[in-house]
Structure of Cupin-like domain-containing protein:
Amino acid sequence: MIAEKIKVDSAIATADDSQLVQVMLMLDGGHQCEIALMPDAPLLGELFQALTTEPEKSESKLFQIPIEEGNGALYFPSTSLVAIATDPAVSLTIPEESKPIETREEIEPDDPVQQLEWQLNTYHKLEKLSPNYGKIERIPHVSGPEFLERFYIRNKPVIFTDLMDNWKARSLWNPQYFKEKYGHVTVGAQFNRESNQQYEWYRNKHQQMVLFGEFVDKVLQGGDTNDYYMGAYNANFSREGLHGLLDDIELFPEYLTDSKDVNKIALWFGPGGAITPLHFDPLNTFLCQVYGRKRVRLIPPSQKHLLGAYGRFFSNIDLENPNFERYPQLKDLDIMELIIEPGDVLFLPVGWWHQVRSLEVSISLSFLNLAFENTFDF
Ligand SMILES: O=C(O)CCC(=O)C(=O)O
């Protein structure tokens, strides 16, 4: 490195030495030059400005520094200045146009919603590159670690076809059995749902207590309807009278915690035509089809922003009767559709949107007590 030290007494400084700032200019190629300036000398400001302006934004300027008591001068282009050292330190006010670009006020911060939507669209585009996109596997059960690796941590739905093979419920449960054995038990169910499009959101208004036997009669005699359903949040397993039903089922030891926690198991029973509207669950669940068939429409979490969500978990969109005028974005939705039959266990991963229709009188159970991390706080 060439260190060319040029002794400068300050021709521009007339004050006594104690007021002067020693300024070392370091130039391209290892050259150095030391001068003495008043702390408020305009030249000092210009030198700092040259240092902080991005090279592509600045016009190169030629500095002329008087040396040798003003008898000589040092010339260098502003772009060759690489650093300045001062003794003592001076406080700097960087001119506005020289501030680093990210601190300039006219640049708006990024819109976080747009950013997230971009990210979701990108993930969705990527997942659709798979030739298997939209195909939900139907397979015999796999070991717990394999389930975790292939489906749970990948947030991927799957149907297991043999997990309920040893359940007594598979041969015992039907509406008649419920009536004969549990007809006297008071249960909760939703009624008058046809009067209100958002019946699931206003579920407390629709929930009524009824004798299980009376509800069975209504289901068997009423034909297809969405007007009543022993659906979400009925808490019927917390009623002691129904605990006997739990003897007819077995937990899947590789996937579920080993207690039959009545708060984490739900009974779904109703007529053909009963619909659970489009929503997602904030945790992983299993939906076990015991009797009758259901159509499940699924939408991956990467399409959340197209779903007109409300109340955290619900959507106003009815996938059975899509309103394209009100929700034009519906034409871009990719909907997966599947039928679950008696004996099928559908793994519904956290965040996946689903709308479910009973195709005939139907009995299902859902489990929330998964054996892996299953708390995803909002
Ligand atoms: O079976 C149904 O009607 C709905 C099930 C469901 O949405 C769930 O388990 O989260």
